[in-house]
Write a structure and sequence with these properties.
The protein has 164 residues and is mostly helical. It has one domain: Arc Repressor Mutant, subunit A. It has seven helices and two strands. The chain has a two-stranded antiparallel ribbon. Helix 2 packs across helix 4, helix 2 crosses helix 5 and helix 3 crosses helix 4. The protein is elongated, with a radius of gyration of 18 Å.
C-alpha cells in the first residue's frame, strides 16, 4: 500500500518535472545508500554480506561503498564486523529507517538555491527560495511516511537474490 503511493508520487513528480524540463535528483551517495540499505533489508536474520558483494551487485566502487557503509554504521543503521568472517548487516529493523532520514543523512546540502554565492541582486525581493523550501518540506514530509521496510517485498528479494 505504502509502496504504491511512493511509486505514484515519484511517477507524478517525474512527469511534472519533465513538463518543465528538469528533474530533482538525489546525489549518487544517497542513491547508493538506499540500494545498500534495501539489499541489507533483504538478508535473512543474522546473515551478513560483504563490501565486495555490495560493490559487485550494484557496480559501485569499493571506495564509495565503504564511505557510505561507514556513514550508515555511524548512524547505527548498519552493523559491521571486521575480519576474515566479517561483513555487514542491518543494525536495526528496516522499518526503523525512514526514507527522509536517509536523505537528510546522505545529502550534503538540501538548500534548494544559493542566493549568496554569487550574491543575487533579487535576494531581498525574491520569493523563489521560500517557495522551493516549502516544496522541499512537503517532499521530505512525504518521504517521512515511508521506511526501508516499505521498499522490500517478494519481488525486491527475488531481484537481490539474482544480482548477488
Amino acid at each position: 500500500m505504502y509502496l504504491f503511493g511512493l511509486q505514484e508520487f515519484i511517477l507524478n513528480y517525474t512527469h511534472s518535472a519533465e513538463r518543465i524540463g528538469s528533474k530533482m535528483q538525489l546525489t549518487k551517495h544517497t542513491d547508493y545508500a538506499f540500494r545498500i540499505l534495501i539489499f541489507l533489508a533483504t538478508l535473512e536474520k543474522d546473515k551478513i554480506t560483504t563490501i565486495r558483494q555490495l560493490t559487485e551487485s550494484f557496480d559501485i566502487s569499493k571506495s564509495h561503498t565503504m564511505k557510505i557503509v561507514n556513514k550508515l554504521v555511524h548512524q547505527n543503521w548498519v552493523q559491521a564486523t571486521r575480519g576474515k568472517n566479517g561483513g555487514v548487516k542491518l543494525g536495526v529493523t528496516a522499518s526503523a529507517i525512514s526514507l527522509k532520514e536517509v536523505v537528510l543523512l546522505m545529502e550534503k546540502t538540501l538548500e534548494p538555491v544559493n542566493c549568496d554565492a554569487p550574491l543575487c541582486a533579487l535576494k531581498t525581493a525574491c520569493q523563489l527560495k521560500g517557495i522551493l523550501v516549502q516544496a522541499q518540506e512537503h517532499y521530505l514530509a512525504h518521504l517521512g511516511k515511508y521506511t526501508i521496510g516499505d521498499l522490500v517485498n517478494n519481488k525486491t528479494i527475488d531481484v537481490i537474490r539474482l544480482i548477488s
